[in-house]
Amino acid sequence: xxxxxxxxxxxxxxxxxxxxxxxxxxxxxxxxxxxxxxxxxxxxxxxxxxxxxxxxxxxxxxxxxxxxxxxxxxxxxxxxxxxxxxxxxxxxxxxxxxxxxxxxxxxxxxxxxxxxxxxxxxxxxxxxxxxxxxxxxxxxxxxxxxxxxxxxxxxxxxxxxxxxxxxxxxxxxxxxxxxxxxxxxxxxxxxxxxxxxxxxxxxxxxxxxxxxxxxxxxxxxxxxxxxxxxxxxxxxxxxxxxxxxxxxxx
Length: 250
Known about the structure:
Number of strands: 12
Low-confidence stretches: none
Number of helices: 11
Distance between the termini: 12 Å
Mean pLDDT: 91
Order of helices and strands: EEEHEHHEHEHHEEEHEHEHEHH
Oligomer: single chain
Radius of gyration: 16 Å
Shape: globular
């Protein structure tokens, strides 16, 4: 079994780390540079940085902030928010990102996934999907969960996989910030149907929730924010707990 990854996520708004519930009611969680440095030292496997209002506000991700975080960490670094074209990807990779996360732009222009994979390699392209359960099934949303689309989670994840995405980062909007566990049934279906790794996002509240994402949801990695930002679950303690259950972590 490949080692499961633990990934803290920095949601950035106006240069500060923030955390909300169900994508709203944001509260301040600290300085992103200091948090990134701390997580790198604590043994996080990767770091994700999302400029959460970039697509909504139509601006580019803070390149300078990416550079500052990259200079302080020694783990793989994924950056998302406001990425619309190859020049955005190039700019962020030069600033120190290892991967980019595309969400709204890929839904609007699926060919962007092919372009990133072709020019920079599949390993650089993380396709983030914000999904919400509706009467018709899991629907994909744009612009930080503000705009529903006609795309459904599983068919869109399949298409992203086929176009050359290296990973799928699936966030359940229903589970986001409520700390009741991840959307394990949807995760399991994704991990069974796709040929690329699936990152679980939305719902971590206890160490058991990470266990379930790996054992029930078959996720390859689990991403979380508030439980790390507010010191509720220290990363070394979480990894020790998972090792005790014979779940392979780095």
